């Protein structure tokens, strides 16, 4: 049977998609280049045309997964047809599952520096939608008028919250089933001057 010719960018993405699925299923150490090639019916020459090593495709798969997760969060925050608190609940639900999936899949000690820089860049990209969301919440009276949030401060304050929560994640064992995204609530509530009980009740309703 003749080999189907595909554009290079499609071939490359097929390899990344196959690698990501395998990394999520088995973890980095249990996946080989041969395993990836078996999924796409490829040969070593094809793999090494696009990637120098398993580490390189791992890094790219991690970057793409993170970018997709951030995009999902931005869509939720920007859906102004839904009430602010409903979007808050949906966002937290997605974040909790996303954190577990991300760290269960990407836990290669050799990639710590790359993972740190990638996470920093991706999370910084969330600052704009988060800042707009905070301004909307303030306009609706959910965030107090004296919170200090305005058009000039919303963006830097959103960066502080995003990277602060990321720090809390790294201070927890996210692979432990006891990990609870509710740990973010006191931090966010006190920083924005929101009722902690209001946010906790929103999450309880989401679980119901």
UniProtKB/TrEMBL annotation:
Residues 9-69 form the HTH tetR-type domain. Residues 32-51 bind DNA. Pfam families: TetR_N. One of its GO terms (molecular function) is DNA binding. SUPFAM superfamilies: Homeodomain-like (SSF46689). Keywords: DNA-binding. Signal peptide: none annotated. InterPro entries: Homeodomain-like_sf, HTH-type_Tx_Regulator, HTH_TetR. This is TetR family transcriptional regulator. It comes from Kineothrix alysoides.
